[in-house]
Every structure is written in structure tokens, then in C-alpha cells.
Amino acid sequence: MRATVFHPRLAALFREHLGQDVFRLEPDTVGVAGHDVADRILAARRATETERPTFKPLHGRSISRSEASSVMRTIGGDVREALKRTRPRPEDVDLSGSWPLRGHLFLRDLILGRDPYRLRILMSRNLELTPKLTWTVIAAGAALPGRVGRRNAPLTAIAGLTADATGYQERRYAMGMYRRAAAPVCFTVSTLVTNALWLGSPFAPETPNRHVLYEAMRLLPPSWNILRNASPEFAAIDGRIEAGDDVLLLPLLAHRDPKLWKEPDEFRPERWENLDPDTAPGYLPFGHASERCWGRHMVMPLAELLLDLIRGSGLEVAPGQSSAKVPLVGLLGVEDVRLTKVRRAAA
Ligand code: HEM
């Protein structure tokens, strides 16, 4: 039995609010985990530009929807190209080691491996430590003379956007956009797969990767909270929300609500045989039906690729590892899960 050790603030959320629908978290913040209220709040209006996780303003410049969708198409094309290179599945990949770092580096090299160092360094996990550090590295890279990447050198299309930028300000903006669009692919997918491994590895051979992933996102949703700043519509939806209250929607709690799920704390991928992840009440790993995550069509095949490679090469969570921590960060995930090859005696 593996122990998942949640940060004390997360553990307190479970302890104090599991099964509640609307509750006060702070003098100016209300938590929402009830699926009906959550549904109405998310349907009430679109996320504003500062609430959007990926395309919030960059260096004070708003990112239009058309620019955002063009950047998403570009990184989507790079991911498709990378996926093509993994068919048939490579057999010589060693994904043992500490996750999510191992998965992050594999994805960075697979998708962005042809890009110059000054762009690839933007994918460093250490940069998450402080946003300031990220911007310092971007500013330093943008200040280097010359284009980003050699002319005619094979870059990813997302790096091509930075290569075409001229002047320090434009280059800095383009590099910020590279980080915004490319980093989540490596960060979120490696986190999601780590969570799945921790919860269920080794998986039964007949269990489809999709079910493993849906169930992992139920118990450990990488996007564990969704913020909506105070809005007049919200007080009309539920009297416990006051006009000035921000609302923190908590898939982390909704996904374990005993009113919605049988054996809510158990990892049961087979429950997805009869459930539709797009319509299961209270299941919001990719946000609300009114505007679901734009990256999910990249996330799922990449996560399935990683699981295929891991399952195909006989890697499992090290049998001696019995506990792992979940820190309090924006992207909810288990830290330092050690994957090793386990030899099993023939049955
Ligand atoms: C495990 C992986 C991921 C999860 C669980 C996830 C989850 C979410 C959620 C919950 C939302 C809705 C946010 C809201 O309504 O406020 C969202 C929106 C969005 N996601 Fe994802 N996401 C993932 C990966 C990605 C990746 C890799 C990208 C881009 C490359 C991406 C791009 C977006 C965009 C563009 C939006 C729309 C709002 C915005 O502009 O930021 N996501 N995602």
C-alpha cells in the first residue's frame, strides 16, 4: 500500500470540506466543490484574460484569441510530428529514474530536441521556482545577438516563431510565448503520467491507458483548482457567495465526493468502462464543457505514449517506495516517484 502525503493545506481541504458543495475558505474567497454549483458558475461567463492559465497577458500585452489559437495550432503540429517519430514504438528508450523529471526530459527532447539551447533551457523545471527567474532567462536569451536558431536549421514550428522575431522586445515576447506554449506540454504530461504510475503501477495488462489516465486525473487532478474572480453573476447562483467573493472551484474535492463516486478514494480505472469523461457529473480535469482545455488533444496521446513505453519495457514504481509527497503548487502532482525494472518470477 502506497501512502500519498498531501501538503498540510491540501490535507486540510480534504479533512474540512470533502462532501460539501459551497464553503468559505477566506474572508473574500468561497470554495465550490458541488457539481451543480460548479457547473453553473463555469457556465455563467468565460474566463477573463487574467484567469486563463496559458494565455494570460504576456509582458503586459494581451494575447488575442486568434493569436492564442494560432500558437496552439503551431505547437499542436510540432507534437503531431513528434508522435509520428514514435511509430512504431521505439524499443531502446530507458525511462527508469525519478519522475516527473525523467518524463519531462524525454518529452522535451522528443518534441523540442532540434531547438537551440537558448530556447530549450526555457523548459527547465527549475524555472518554475520563481516566475522572476524565468523572465531573467528569457531576457538574457533575447539579448543575445543574432537570430534564435540558425537559418535553414530544422527548428520546431513553435521555435520558428521566435526565429522570425526581430529586435529585443519582439524576441523577448516570442520567447515568452515559446515558454507559455511548449512548457505546459512537458510539465503537465509528465506530471499526469507520474500521478498515474504512483496510483496504479503495475497496471493490469488489459487496462487501457485511457482509463488509467482518466482515473489518475480523478484522484490527482493536475489542475486541482480553477479560479474565477468575483463577478455579479455568482451571487445570484448561490446565496452563500457574496458580491465581492472570488470563487475557487475545486475538482480535487469534487472528484472524491462520495455522493458522486463509488469507493471515491480507490484507484479503479475500470469505472471508466461505463462512464463518459466528458459528461460524468463533477468531473472537470480539463475544465468545463463551455471551454475545455485547448491542449487536451495533445496531452492524451503523449501521456498514452509514455505509458506504452513504460508498460512495454516492464518498468514499475520501485517496490521499496512506500510514500511520496504532493506539494502545494499550481500543478498537482506526486514528487520523486522512482521507476525501475522489476523482474517477476514466472507464474
Ligand atoms: C494534464 C494536462 C492539462 C490539464 C489537466 C489541463 C487543464 C486545463 C483546465 C482545467 C483548463 C480550464 C481553465 C479555466 O477554465 O479557467 C484548461 C484550459 C486551457 N488549457 Fe489546459 N490543461 C492541460 C494541458 C494543457 C497544455 C499542454 C496546453 C498547451 C499547450 C494547455 C492549454 C490550455 C489553454 C489554451 C486553455 C484555455 C484557457 C487559456 O487560454 O489559458 N493545457 N486546461
Automatic annotation (TrEMBL):
Matches recorded under Pfam families: p450 (PF00067)
Protein family: Belongs to the cytochrome P450 family.
Q: What is this protein called?
A: Cytochrome P450
